[in-house]
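User: Batch of two.

Assistant: Item 1 of 2:
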Amino acid sequence: QVQLVESGGGLVQPGGSLRLSCAASGFTFSSYAMSWYRQAPGKQRELVAYIFSGGSTNYADSVKGRFTIFRDNAKNTVYLQMSSLTPEDTAVYYCSRGGTAWGRGTQVTVSS
């Protein structure tokens, strides 16, 4: 079955960087668009970044220029490189395939 496993979250100071990873299995990874969402306490889950199977990307306005989504089809993994982090980026980050398959999430906390 479809499995998505996120890793790489943690505590980082404002201005710092983190790279999240999402290891996928159970489907032909290279054929699917993949996305990263996040959900902050008390807020709705929001789309952060999206990468098509061909490699084109889209980003939420709030992260443009700071976050980069990329994929390694040989490793069945999608990544989210995050830089210039602010406390407003604190959230649980989820990997998704098509908004229907989800990982369990990884916590990112930006705090001094």
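Item 2 of 2:
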Amino acid sequence: QVQLQESGPGLVKPSQTLSLTCTVSRGSITTNYYYWHWIRQPPGKGLEWVGAMAYDGSTYYSPSLKSRTSVSRDTSKNRITLQLNSVTPEDTAVYYCTENTYWGQGTQVTVSS
């Protein structure tokens, strides 16, 4: 079955850019009708959808984060990348990469000086 693994810096300073990578194994990110999502969960809060990359390269963003978010892919490495600009402490969360029922373990990101 498909496996997803998130990676990235655990600590980011305010105003900097957060960059996370989702490495997909046992499946291709270009497989028809697969949608690769980034979802986050701030401490003590519920899940929040951040954005997604479709199998055909189309991108989708949360309206509340769209101005700061970019999702891209590297098909040669089977990876999906999330960039979030101008981060604040409110961006502190566990970030997950998902595709339907497949979820990564999540990676903790803390925004602090």
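The CA atoms of residues 29 and 94 lie 22 Å apart.
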